[in-house]
Amino acid sequence: MRTVVDLTRCQGYAQCVFLAPDVFRLHGEEGLLYAPAVPDDQVERVRRAAAACPVQAILLGEEVSGGAR
Amino acid sequence: MHGELTDGRIVIVGASLAGLRAAEALRAQGFTGSLTVVGDEPHPPYDRPPLSKQVLLGIAPADSTGLPMRADPKAEWLLGVRATGLDPLARRVLLDGGESLPYDRVLIATGTRARPWPNPAEAALDGVFTLRTREDAAGLAERLDAGPERVLVIGGGFTGSEIASACRERGLAVTVTERGPAPLVGALGGTLSKLAAVMQRNHGVDLRTGATVTRLLGDGRFTGAELSDGSRVDADVCVVALGAIRNVEWLAESGLAAGPRGLACDAGCRAFTMYGIVTDDVFVAGDVSRFPHPLFGYQLLSLEHWGNAVAQAEVAAHNMVSPGPLRRPHLALPTFWSTQFGLNIKSVGVPTYSDHVVIAQGSLEARRLAMVYGYRGRVTAAVTVDMAKVLEYYQHLIETAAPFPPPPGAADRALAAEIPVPSDVPDPSVLSHGPTVALTGYVPDRRLTVV
Fold this sequence. Notes:
The complex is a heterodimer. Chain A is α+β, with helices and mostly antiparallel strands.
């Protein structure tokens, strides 16, 4: 699974940092850094983080499969 | 309903953020016909902002930033295939290799590419990079892992500043050259650019402003550069961060209004022909577009913003399958963010469309503030540094054309600094870095000086 955060929306509430600290972390006071590739054992945590995000900025999903034809 | 397109053929040219979000939105709108996405990169859609942040910091590998889908658009993905032309009369997208794809509607979302170093021989030196693609980021991250003696970053825009920030965080020596008076000045104006310069120097960046690189040195391998002030920088890695070029060359014979600033379209994302006549089956979204915005005098805006790619793709997709009266305008305000030197910078509106600024909350000394930009007495933009939560309030002021300087509202006290100062937005031609927000129309009181 992959995650992407809409950082235009993100206001640094950092709920995701508490719920999935291995994936999301704060960089400075409110800048968010995250690992876009979510390991299987973190998927549930990221799902919870996405649900808890006050500005609903987190998307979790599959990436488009395939490559050059 | 008449004019609604639920079946037929849609081709999206460009397989990055805007292309993916448009494909998803078309399906969400009920389009069940054939959907083909053409992309010249061999990868499925991936996210670029992490390439200058997480990837260079070593938090995420370059090939891990694939974009998640909201829902599988069940599209045919032609990846690693370049579109070479558009025949609007035959309604076909021409592909490299001679094939062509018929369409009823086409969306152009070909984005931008990194502006290369102008001297091809110097640009080809081992150790000279640009940063736009997954491959660029992987190559640069590998060099940073190897622990170079010094990294030279040419251009003090957002990308150049983020690269410098990542280098310093990794303990690497870094020199930044910027032709303008300070980093980020083209995007944020004079006052905040001074803060950006202080942050860079405090974090140990060797910042050279008012200087350009005149020559890259090396014999096969990059070894350093000569500067316009006569000095020389010894470095073993060079990142050219001179802004972006719109991918419009493939449209040269199409008769569309495509040029260096992008492909012009109306507020409904419909492309214009070179005669200024709006088309009805060619749509545009993302960095390659140039669109009018009522809040900024209906000037055509060229943006290189993540949020704009998403918002415009959604509007374009809606309009591609909707009859005329149900079409929507793309009116989203430009917004962007940057994380560098431990600060979170966020912007809404068009800061360069301003004559004065005022610090409405916080202070430069605290490195935490909200700066509001005004043009002829109304609020046109706001930038926060580590104060993202208040940005929405100022966004509302911009959307309602509120008077400038703004009344205290989000703040529980008077404006932090009562006196507006000139916004000090320079002529973009004096900068090394390309602006990521560009007004491309005529502003009567802005007489650009030629340097």
